[in-house]
From TrEMBL:
Location (main, coarse): membrane
InterPro entries: MetI-like, MetI-like_sf
Lineage: Bacteria, Bacillati, Actinomycetota, Actinomycetes, Micrococcales
Family: Belongs to the binding-protein-dependent transport system permease family.
Localization terms from the record: Cell membrane
Pfam family, any one: BPD_transp_1
Name of protein: ABC transporter permease
GO cellular component: plasma membrane
Keywords per UniProt: Cell membrane, Membrane, Transmembrane, Transmembrane helix, Transport
TM region(s), chain numbering: 86-109, 121-144, 185-204, 243-269, 289-315
Species this chain originates from: Agromyces archimandritae
ABC transmembrane type-1 domain location: 82-312
Membrane topology recorded in Swiss-Prot or TrEMBL: Multi-pass membrane protein
GO molecular function, one term: dipeptide transmembrane transporter activity
Amino acid sequence: MVGVTIVTFALTNLVPGDPVSAALGEGASQNPATREAFIREHGLDQPAVAQYFLYMGNLLQGDLGRSIVTGRPVSADLATAVPATLEIAVCAIVVSLALSILLGTLAAYRRGLVTDQIVRVVTLVGLSIPTFWLALLCFSFFFLQLGIAPGSGRISPAITPPPTITGLYTVDYLLNGDPVGFLDALAHLALPVLVLSLVTTGLLTRFIRTAVLEVLSSDYVRAARAKGLSGARVVFDYVLRGAALPILTVTGVAFGALLSGTVLVESVFAWPGLGTYAYNAAANLDLSAIMGVGLVVGLVYLVINLIVDLLYGVLDPRVRLA
């Protein structure tokens, strides 16, 4: 995380543009006294190294600065944006993983046959379609033309947001015993999750097919078949368990990418998540918000990698023995 702060701070300060003008606006930034006061208040008159340690001192106290776009503390903005992105990312990775295990295993068992070829073509199409185009297509077709899906946002305008407990609207509605709000929030999740799932499924399916093919050629799987075990038991107890570690690895990477790379999908569906917040921060040269997003993304990948490493020991006793 210290390395992430150094890289984020360095890259943010290399961004072309005038942060003082971006923060104060064109009018106020032309006033020398106002400009000088802002520079002194934020330590911009000090060397870069001193600015970094000033930033780290504030960071250790939980102060990520104040956003010039929203006028609120960056930590408060992230506390709202991160759960919104987490909600669609968790749903998308669950749907993607379930579909990918089914399609990847089926393609591996039917290697070289028509089923395998169809799955490979479908996954290749899923990987090739631009995410923003797929999002626009789904929005236009399901909302504008068919009218079977709700519009943009996390909930309908007539629905009151739930009291914040977790920040995940579907969970908070359930915890507050509000089935109407839960169904409305779930309906708004459908299209963003559909788009992200289609893209992620293409990646995971191809990887799972390769991992399952490698396990199918192993001696212990052939021995299990020779013992006369049922096909379902061979798949779940031997094949998928043997392929669990590489599947877990790529799933962790895909989940991290979903959390940090949903800006295009969130923009299309006006989803107030981390991607939209990062885009608005970059477009307005909101340096405090940009650094806050960078820290969150770095923390997400570190936590996911830690969880994946711990799960290695749960799934494979050899890791625990090592």
